[in-house]
Write a structure and sequence with these properties.
alpha/beta; 3 strands
C-alpha cells in the first residue's frame, strides 16, 4: 500500500490557499499527527481543523497529539483534539508529559 507523507509547518496555515489544500489532504488521511509547542491554538489552526473535520470521508483513522514538554496546558489541547477525533470518527492518541 503506498504511503503519502505530508507535513506542514503551522505558519503555512496562515495562508488561506495553503490551509485549504492542507485541509483536503488531512480529510483523506488515515493518520494525522499534530505536534505542538504552543499553549493555545491559533485561529488559522482551528480553521484548518474545522475544514478537514467537515470534509472527512473516511470512517476510521487516528488523530495523534504530541504536545511539547513546555506545553503546560496540554490538557486543554488534549480535550480539544479528543472532541475533534470523536466527531471525525477517529481514534485518539495523546503523548502524556514525562514525569520526572
Amino acid at each position: 500500500m503506498p504511503v503519502d507523507r505530508c507535513s506542514w509547518n503551522i505558519r503555512a496555515l496562515d495562508s488561506d490557499a495553503t490551509r485549504g489544500f492542507a485541509a483536503g489532504e488531512a480529510a483523506r488521511a488515515d493518520l494525522i499527527v499534530i505536534a505542538l509547542s504552543c499553549e493555545s491554538l491559533s485561529v488559522a489552526l482551528k480553521d484548518w481543523v474545522k475544514q478537514w473535520e467537515k470534509k472527512r470521508s473516511s470512517r476510521d483513522g487516528l488523530l495523534a497529539l504530541i504536545p511539547s514538554d513546555e506545553c503546560v496546558s496540554g490538557g486543554l489541547l488534549e480535550e480539544y483534539f479528543y472532541e475533534i477525533a470523536v466527531t471525525a470518527n477517529m481514534d485518539f492518541l495523546c503523548r502524556k508529559q514525562r514525569r520526572y
